[in-house]
Design brief:
The chain is mainly alpha-helical. It has 22 helices and 5 strands. The N and C termini lie far apart (about 160 Å).
């Protein structure tokens, strides 16, 4: 029973094929039949019969044999080999026709069917799981899809909404633009209207400004003392129908008894007095000359006032050469030359200030020459002033110069120290200022050539003292005049006027053109008046010339500004301070001129 016996020759083919296949497997184990039977707890005879083909083994034996061979060789049979064994086993069983074979076959088929059933069951389960998963996933996707649809709908709705909003905004802006265009058009028309109204108002302002200057002048005249008790102009003297457009133009403050005479001007003062008492009797023409601000204008006004008091029937006319020129030009434009000539050739006393300004135009010089001749021939008094003697007025032409030289020529010199002190004393008394003699002496020693500046210095010193409630003593005067007395190189006078305008404009934050222009804004008017005052105080440029530089104004305006700022300086600290600062700036800019003495060393 140890080894296999050869197969019988009578074995059916199916039994033989199976036996050969089993023997092939069994051979791979290298065991004896008995040993193998022991290992598998089988009967060795049965194992021998299974391998000899005399009996068909149960599939379980075949299966065990396959497992053992696999274990032994480390390699399982291929699926095809398994299938072959199964088929051989089934055919052998079928061929045996035994009940056992039949049972085996059926069991085998049952196992096979069961296996298939289990496989199908597993497949069903796997498919059910896969289906469930797919369904679940489909439901998920459905949900996501719905959500996406929802979001897309929302976005579309939002888009629609913002599109609508955008269209609404565009429509609103278009509407607004249209309205604005209409508004711009309307505003343009209103602006034109406003321009027209402004031009009209501007003209009205100019007119009122002129009236105001005149009214203030009259008011001051009425409240001032009259010359030697004579009536103030306009208070009792009937207006002369054919008189000059500027009236007699006399300043009531400039009287002969208010003129301080000294060595430098005594002769001029006497001549003026004589002419006023007996017009056209002694000196005709009377020609007064001298540098600026030493009393020429004062004398002419004083002659006029004294004449009017002594000879109320006489027609007196004071006019500056510049005013004469302006009126002549106007008369020429308006074809009113006859009237102009009647005015000036019909007066009894003609007082013409600053004749050097006639030099500008030939027709004007010619006109004045004829006026002169007409008056002289009619034995009317002519009084003239200039900054130079007739000999030096070459630009006036020989004929006129000869006539100017034909009368009395008086030179008014800058007052000496004594006269300056007298002048200061006089001004202090007139204005009710209490000033110690040494203060007046000090001021007089500092300001030597220009009486207007001398007055200005006194005004500043007294204003400073009164604003600070300090006594008016020499240290105080020194302090105040420190900024006023220049120590710079000489500069051309008219340049200084422009410099003053520029510095003042800069100081007040306006433009120089504003100051020269016509604007009547409060700030500009004050700045302009201050600039005018400073021009009068700090330069020797004549008043008409200053008025011309300030946009061709009436000299009366400059004089008005001068008085106004003087008063304000004493009343308002702010104005005083502004004046002091401004003067210092002008001085720093090198703007103060002439040969004034340098400051004494501080004590
Ligand atoms: N001798 C004087 N007595 C009193 N006041 C005087 C005397 N000289 C000048 N003044 C005063 O000085 C100021 C300037 O004088 P005024 O205007 O007559 O000078 P001016 O020589 O005519 O100068 P301009 O040529 O610049 O017009 C005036 O206020 C004037 O009253």
């Amino acid at each position: 029973m140890g080894s296999l016996v050869p197969l019988g020759g009578d074995l059916p083919d199916e039994g033989r094929a199976l036996a050969e296949a089993l023997r092939g497997l069994f051979g791979g184990l290298g065991l004896s039949v008995r040993r193998y039977a022991t290992r598998r707890h089988r009967d060795a005879g049965s194992v021998s019969r299974f391998l000899n083909g005399s009996r068909v083994p149960p599939w379980e034996f075949v299966n065990d044999l396959i497992s053992d061979v696999t274990e032994q060789q480390g390699q399982p049979p291929t699926p095809e080999a398994m299938e072959l064994l199964r088929r051989l086993h089934r055919e052998a069983l079928a061929e045996s026709g035994s009940a056992y074979g039949r049972v085996q076959l059926l069991e085998d088929q049952l196992a096979d069917a069961d296996r298939r059933s289990m496989e199908s069951t597993n497949l069903v389960r796997a498919l059910e799981r896969a289906l469930a998963n797919a369904q679940h996933r489909a439901a998920d996707l459905e949900l996501q899809l719905r959500q996406l649809h929802g979001r897309q709908d929302d976005r579309l709705a939002e888009k629609d909404k913002s599109l609508q909003l955008y269209e609404d905004q565009v429509t609103a802006l278009l509407r607004e633009r249209q309205n604005l265009l209409r508004e711009v058009e309307a505003l343009g028309e209103q602006l034109q209207d406003a321009h027209a109204r402004r031009a009209q108002a501007e003209r009205r302002c100019e007119e009122l400004e002129r009236q105001l200057v005149v009214a203030e002048e009259l008011w001051e005249e009425e409240s001032g003392e009259a010359d030697d008790g004579s009536p103030a102009p306009g208070s009792g003297t009937p207006a002369q129908d054919d008189g000059p457009a500027t009236g007699n133009g006399l300043d009531p403050r400039y009287r002969l008894d208010a003129f301080v005479a000294g060595e430098a001007n005594r002769f001029a003062h006497s001549a003026a007095t004589a002419v006023a008492e007996a017009p056209a009797k002694l000196y005709n023409p009377l020609f007064v000359y001298g540098t600026s601000a030493i009393g020429k204008t004062h004398l002419l006004h004083a002659i006029g006032q004294r004449t009017r008091r002594l000879h109320p029937d006489k027609r007196v006319c004071y006019v500056t050469a510049e005013e004469f020129g302006v009126e002549f030009a106007r008369a020429g434009h308006n074809l009113g030359l006859d009237r102009f000539r009647r005015r000036y050739r019909g007066v009894d006393v003609l007082l013409l200030d600053d004749i050097q300004f006639l030099a500008d135009q030939q027709p004007l010089r010619e006109e004045f020459l004829h006026t002169f001749d007409a008056l002289h021939a009619a034995n009317k008094q002519i009084v003239l002033s200039s900054d130079r003697p007739p000999k030096q007025l070459t630009e006036l032409g020989d004929r006129l110069r000869n006539r100017l030289e034909s009368g009395l020529i008086t030179h008014v010199r800058p007052p000496d120290q004594e006269a300056r002190i007298a002048l200061l004393r006089h001004k202090a008394q007139r204005d009710g200022l209490v000033a110690a003699p040494e203060v007046l002496e000090y001021i007089a020693s500092q300001i030597q050539r220009n009486v207007r500046e001398l007055e200005g210095a006194l005004i500043r010193v007294s204003a400073f003292a009164s604003l600070n409630r300090q006594p008016m003593d020499v240290p105080l005067a020194e302090k105040v005049l420190k900024d006023l007395v220049p120590d710079r190189v000489p500069t051309r006078e008219e340049d200084v006027v422009h410099l003053i305008i520029d510095e003042t404009a800069h100081y007040f934050g306006v433009t120089s053109d504003d100051l020269r222009g016509r604007s009547r804004g409060r700030a500009i008017v004050t700045a302009r008046q201050i600039a005018m005052y400073l021009c009068r105080e700090l330069t020797d440029v004549s008043t008409p010339r200053i008025a011309t530089v300030f946009g061709g104004r009436d000299p009366v305006t400059v004089e008005h500004a001068d008085r106004k700022i003087r008063n304000l300086m004493a009343q308002r600290r702010s104005v005083y301070n502004q004046m002091t600062e401004l003067t210092a700036r002008i001085k720093d800019a090198g703007g103060l001129s002439v040969d004034r003495p340098a400051l004494p060393a501080p004590m």
